[in-house]
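Example: Mitochondrial enolase superfamily member 1.
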Amino acid sequence: MSLPTTITAMHVKDIRYPTSIQLDGSDAMHKSPDYSCCYVILETDGPLTGHGHTFTVGKGTDVVCYAADIMKKYVVGRKLDAIFNNFGQYWHEVTCDDQFRWIGPEKGVTHMATAAVMNAIWDLWAKIEGKPLWKLLVDMDAEQLVNCIDFSYIEDVLTKEEAIGILKGMDATKATREAEMRETGYPIYTTSCGWLGYSDEKITKLATEAMSQGFSRFKMKVGQDVKDDIRRAAIFRKVIGPDRIWCVDANQVWGIQQAIDWMTALAPYKPLWIEEPTSPDDILGHAAIAKALNPLGIGVATGEMCHNRVMFKQFLQAGALQFCQIDACRLGGVNEVIAVILMATKFNVPVCPHAGGVGLCELVQHYAMFDYIRCCGTLENRMTEFADHLHEHMCDPVVVRNGHYMPQKEPGFLVGMKAQSLSDYEYPVGAAWQKLFDEGVFKRDHAHENN
Ligand SMILES: C[C@H](O)[C@@H](O)CC(=O)C(=O)O
Ligand SMILES: [Mg+2]
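Written out as structure tokens, the predicted fold is:
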């Protein structure tokens, strides 16, 4: 096979799945989300294509696609070697476009678009090397890996030399951990039993099934009504028993004191963490909640809406999170995610990636393996999220065995979606959407009224 040298074209698609019909993915803030993504395909002068996406929730996916489209000028016509040899510098160039950065910078729509593009480029790199992404990251020279990071604004807590030191310090033992991953996989928890819109009966049924599949870690959505939460917590504990790991997620609905009071009411059910108790931007608020809940044995988890490495740096400096939930699409792709994993390693804070979305499990499995094998070297207090939705649309869905992600062997980032799914669920023109519009199940978005 001839290896590609140049990116020759970039296509961007608005893909949406109607998950709100069953209330899959529902939480106190996002009551009926449609799991969606901005999906990027890179063509090359060889047979390989790169696929990447960024997760969104329905409306606004077109806005992210528009932003990704603007980035074409940094992608099409570029030599792959030139990108890979100076990846950190390239990432800086893309994120610092002197006009486009005004509507970011490095946050929100522009940064999510960056993630889709960067994820597609990393997919190409892994395919060229003939390895799954986790293995590419595990095998890469420390210097080469660190060369992929833009250290702007984080050098006060992590220098290039320190990052290289962390990676090299683990090299002698990494083969043992890689073998362990191949044997037993990486521990995961399931969110899919405890979405907010699910009935008590559904929670009981799904948690019972998950237990029989070997899951021993669970998460439940909270934050709409404290009495409901207490009842649902009791149901969960009754099914999973007193000792299995159980976490809760409020998706930002509370103020600071409200979060402390609500979690004090749920404390008897022994949650390991409260996730996103308040505004994702309120670093000192998270620190106050963490301080108040520490005596109850409850940690604070956050990160799925943490804009960038600079925010994570401050969360870590302020002791505002006990579980660092990197998100493969909220951050600007692999380059920034590895920077955050290395900072968390330095602060000795467990990384527990967020994966409630479409294609997120497929993305974060690589980070979990990389983190364990190459960075932190421990599984203590670590687990990655699993959400059991839409995997049937993926070309290489995650492999789950006995409550663990098993490392995959195919080359790439493994986030490609099936051609039929891309065609059926492209918004608003795909056949699946046309049918839902015709049947009156969905109305077209305001922006798409004429399609
Ligand atoms: C809207 C999403 O489903 C969100 O609830 C996911 C999430 O918070 C998680 O998986 O954690
Ligand atoms: Mg969450």
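The pocket of LWAPGFLV (ligand 1) is lined by residues 25, 27, 30, 33, 57, 191, 249, 251, 304, 354, 356, 385, 387 (CB under 6 Å).
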